[in-house]
Amino acid sequence: MSSLQGYVDRRVLLILQDGRAIVGTMAGYDQKSNVVLSDSKERVYSIDEGVEEIPLGLYLVKGDMVVLIGEIDEVLDQAVDLATVRAEPIMPIRY
Amino acid sequence: MLIFSVFKTLTDQQVTVELKNDLSITGILKSVDQFLNIRLDNIKVLDEGRHPHMMAVKNCFIRGSVVRYVQLPSEHVDTQLLEDATRREALSQVKR
């Protein structure tokens, strides 16, 4: 089983169908990969500016919207200065 | 069901998953489930310069519905066996 077990209480990066990237602490999940994130922030990427973090608080994401959930290595993540990162936003999903 | 079985035989092999948002991720296949959701370890995003979003991510869960392709290590896939199993499965569906 390829469940999300092991991600609970960890800092995770969620990539959504529309290309948004949300980081948060995984509070819970279910079979349909619905996910609850606590203390979550959206990371907005752009070419002209550094990454902007928008606080979202407690967030429930429907499983249909999930593309990818990645465990964040907090040491590595804190070493990155987001204000200097310039990148195109992630593409939305196209079926 | 057949493809699910194929994936199960490929655990701990290196695969490259291309997603429907044009992101390609290489990693060690850790597990698969019936929706073909995939767990990858030790991941690397192709063209990391353009996609720095996952720099701090070392393992991930990919939803099966957003996978476009999976590149498999050909030396670990027995195509002859796969063909035979496909025919067997097709035959069993005709009988029903």
Spans of chain A of 5+ residues with little confidence (pLDDT < 50)? none
CA radius of gyration of chain A is: 13 Å
Mean of pLDDT of chain B: 94
User: Main β-sheet of chain B: number of strands, strand sense, barrel status?
Assistant: 5 strands, antiparallel
Helix content of chain B: 25-40%
The poorly predicted ranges of chain B are: none
Separation of the first and last Cα atoms of chain B: 17 Å
Strand order of the largest sheet of chain A: 4-3-2-1-5
Q: Gap between N and C termini of chain A, in Å?
A: 26 Å
Largest interface: A-B, 36 and 29 residues
Q: Count helical runs of chain B.
A: 2
Mean pLDDT of chain A: 94
Protein name (chain A): LSM2-LSM8 complex subunit LSM8
Family (chain A): Belongs to the snRNP Sm proteins family.
Domain Sm (chain A): 1-75
Keywords (chain A): mRNA processing, mRNA splicing, Nucleus, Ribonucleoprotein, RNA-binding, Spliceosome
What does the model show?
The complex is a heterodimer of chains A (95) and B (96). Chain A has 95 residues and is mainly beta. Helices cover 6% and strands 44% of the residues of chain A. Chain A has one helix at residues 74-79, and strands at 11-16, 21-29, 35-44, 52-61, 66-72. Chain A has a five-stranded antiparallel beta sheet with strand order 4-3-2-1-5. The mean pLDDT of chain A is 94. Chain B is an alpha+beta fold. The mean pLDDT of chain B is 94. Classes of the chains: A mainly beta (95), B alpha+beta (96). Chains A and B meet through strand 5 and helix 1 of A and strand 2, strand 3 and strand 4 of B. Strand 5 (66-72) of chain A pairs antiparallel with strand 4 (57-62) of chain B, so a sheet runs across the interface.
